[in-house]
Amino acid sequence: MTGKFIAIEGLEGAGKTTAINTVARILNQHDIGDLQFTREPGGTPIAEALRNIIKNGLDNEPLTDKAELLMLYAARIQLIDNVIKPALHAGKWVIGDRHDLSTQAYQGGGRQLDKVFMMTLKEQVLGDFKPDLTLYLDIDPESGLWRARSRGDLDRIEQQSLPFFKRVHQRYLELAKQDETIRVVDATKSIDNVAEQIEQILIDWLTKQVNI
Ligand code: T5A
After folding, report:
1. How far away, in angstroms, is 132 Cα from ligand 1 center?
2. CA distance 202 to 68
3. Is residue 67 in contact with ligand 1, taking CB distance under 6 Å?
4. What is the pLDDT of residues 103-148, one digit of tens each?
């Protein structure tokens, strides 16, 4: 039996780290303990090097929006081919901190890159590979950024303007409506309430996937 791929998505400060721990706890409670954790961009040596450039830039050279997009896909395919697919084939379950939905929201919605270019690139690089389930933690950009800022220094993307994050948020919501593998969690609630929502969604989904 191959494993399943669950991606956690949302704006900065949405609570993805906490959600990942909740998902792992629930899977463990259902005897699914062989887990592979990933983060994007990142998760392999080459992908982590690209993450560093994407988040921090290099030598003050302007990073163009298209180059950013291409680096994200380079990092993603390194991770999929070298980590995610081998883990799934070995029967592991993969919990991903972000995946392609982030690119659709940030580079498609936020950066407003051309839709046809983005769709072509996605199809060429990913084919039909996608998460079995995506938990999208929905938070308004103001609240999410407030949480993220209270943690310290902001990276290159976190320094974008509020209208950028509003477009990202809008695109996340649009895409969540179009895809039944994406489940929306109200991430503005308390940590305990968010964990309860995730538990309900996950148990409902698990009962449809495997006999638990
Ligand atoms: N990016 C990424 C793209 O532009 N395109 C892409 O394709 C991809 C893959 C990645 C950056 O790259 C961009 C998006 C990002 O800008 P990252 O560090 O991986 O960077 O992602 P971030 O979103 O920046 O990670 P954060 O750590 O900011 O977000 P989290 O993980 O959602 O937030 P978390 O869990 O650390 O929580 C933040 C704070 O809020 C508190 C936590 O305790 C913590 O202090 N908190 C809550 N407080 C109150 N109530 C709750 N319910 C709370 N939940 C958490």
Report:
1. 21
2. 33
3. no
4. 999 999 999 999 999 999 999 999 999 999 999 999 999 999 999 8
Would you say residue 212 has pLDDT above 60? no
Task: Out of 3.40.50.2300, 3.40.50.300, 3.30.1360.30, 2.60.40.60, select the CATH number for domain 5-210.
Answer: 3.40.50.300
- Three-class secondary structure of residue 38 per DSSP: strand
DSSP secondary structure letter of residue 63: P
Q: Compute the distance between CA of residue 31 and CA of residue 100 in angstroms, rounded to an integer.
A: 28
* CB distance 41 to ligand 1 below 6 Å: yes
**CB neighbour burial string for 32-70, b if at least 16 within 10 angstroms, e if fewer:** beebbebbbbbbbeebeebbebbeeeeeeeeeeeeebbe
Q: Whose CA is nearest to atom 8 of ligand 1?
A: 102
Answer whether 16 contacts ligand 1 (Cβ < 6 A): yes
Give the predicted TM-score (pTM) of the model: 0.96
DSSP string, 129-185: ---SEEEEEE--HHHHHHHHHTTS---TTTTS-HHHHHHHHHHHHHHHHH-TTEEEE
Task: Establish whether residue 111 lines the binding site of ligand 1, counting it when its CB lies within 6 angstroms of any ligand atom.
Answer: no
Q: What angle do CA 92, 93, 97 make, to 5 degrees?
A: 130
Q: Is the CB of 108 inside a 6 Å radius of any atom of ligand 1?
A: no
